[in-house]
Automatic annotation (TrEMBL):
<keyword id="KW-0067">ATP-binding</keyword>
<dbReference type="GO" id="GO:0005471">
    <property type="term" value="F:ATP:ADP antiporter activity"/>
</dbReference>
<feature type="transmembrane region" description="Helical">
    <location>
        <begin position="98"/>
        <end position="121"/>
    </location>
</feature>
<dbReference type="Pfam" id="PF03219">
    <property type="entry name" value="TLC"/>
</dbReference>
<feature type="transmembrane region" description="Helical">
    <location>
        <begin position="359"/>
        <end position="388"/>
    </location>
</feature>
<keyword id="KW-0547">Nucleotide-binding</keyword>
<feature type="transmembrane region" description="Helical">
    <location>
        <begin position="282"/>
        <end position="308"/>
    </location>
</feature>
<comment type="similarity">
    <text>Belongs to the ADP/ATP translocase tlc family.</text>
</comment>
<dbReference type="GO" id="GO:0016020">
    <property type="term" value="C:membrane"/>
</dbReference>
<dbReference type="InterPro" id="IPR004667">
    <property type="entry name" value="ADP_ATP_car_bac_type"/>
</dbReference>
<keyword id="KW-0812">Transmembrane</keyword>
<keyword id="KW-0813">Transport</keyword>
<feature type="transmembrane region" description="Helical">
    <location>
        <begin position="164"/>
        <end position="184"/>
    </location>
</feature>
<feature type="transmembrane region" description="Helical">
    <location>
        <begin position="42"/>
        <end position="61"/>
    </location>
</feature>
<protein>
    <recommendedName>
        <fullName>ADP,ATP carrier protein</fullName>
    </recommendedName>
</protein>
<keyword id="KW-0472">Membrane</keyword>
<feature type="transmembrane region" description="Helical">
    <location>
        <begin position="133"/>
        <end position="152"/>
    </location>
</feature>
Amino acid sequence: MKSPEGKATFQFAIRLFLILFAYYLMKPVREGLILDGGSAEIRSFALAGQAALLLIMVPIYGHIIKHLQGNKLFHAVTIFLASNIMLFYFLYRAGYDIGVPFFIWLGIFSVLQISQFWTMVSDYHCVESGKRLTSYIAIGGSLGAMVGSMFAKFLYLELDADGLMILAMIMLAIAVVIPTANVAMRKDHDHVDDESISHLLGGLKKVFDNSYLRWIAASVVLLNLINSTGEFILADFVTGEKSGAEIGAFYATFYLYVNIATLVLQAFVVRPMYQVIGVGGALISLAVFNLAMYISVLAFPVLAWFAIVKMADNSIDYSVANTTKQILFLPLDRFTRYEGMLAINTFFTRFGDLIQGGVIFVVISMLAMPTMFLVGVNITLCLLWLFVTFNVSRRFKIWSEKSEAVLKAEADVKGEGQA
């Protein structure tokens, strides 16, 4: 902890703790507002709407990061998002129905705020230090998510939605004002393509031009499509059995258990998993586990079992999958990381929601198929995702070797110059 690296890692973990504390205070509020008096279909279509908004935000953010970096960028994004919460607070107090817009906004918050945080962290770590320290930073996030869920579970009925919004704003304000380590930007070795940086669709162009990023994007789209389809199935089960405040209370309890499991996995499983089977092996194992879980639902198609399946699915997604995704970007140069991560963590992440909205519309609204049909859809998607993870794993190994070789060569040249 006394070393600059240890101090920076601890302070990154504190910030992520506060961000996810705030997010999980608001998450059961989101579910309660949109499902009480609404439906799982409305929730599904609201998810799809996020992708369209994020398509607009990607090039705007790509322009901003050329002028703001590190803490300045973090402060600007966090203050802006906190001011949005204040706006929703006043609208809710005035009696407006904010269910759909708040649902869409919180989804964008989760992607934009957390993506921006991890891109800031990636400036500090090379591949090797990232493998060692990213999981420790993520533990702070997992702890914040768990504590936030715990507060939401016990305070949801007492404070109501507006009270939890105020508490979330306080957490974000603290994240802005806490002191941070003096972290120098990591020196990248790759040439920066000025045309790519100034391109209107910055991050999207990066992804389409880079085969490695394309495979990562495909993996993220499939993962989120599987997860959001599972969320629809869960919401359909919940609205069939619960109503009113029971919905928000159910989700507060659900997210608490998810985040307890996430913390345990992040603290005791993720790093040892990387040491045993590597980053690529961890990614492949996620697809295998998801496939097994959805096959089990065919035998036990009830809320009690599916809630357990989704708890396992989400906790693994938030721990192993999220940490692995951040590490996959580390071999890349700074602007490729920033623009590629922003595009993948925002647009491509929510593009899975856009596809999911279309799937729900066709399967449920047009064809009037039962919800269990979507379980079969997810099983098929898991098989496709398994194929993609093999390709991502192979390319990560290649890019990591290239990055380490160039860094070693630069270190040798620097050593010769000093001699």
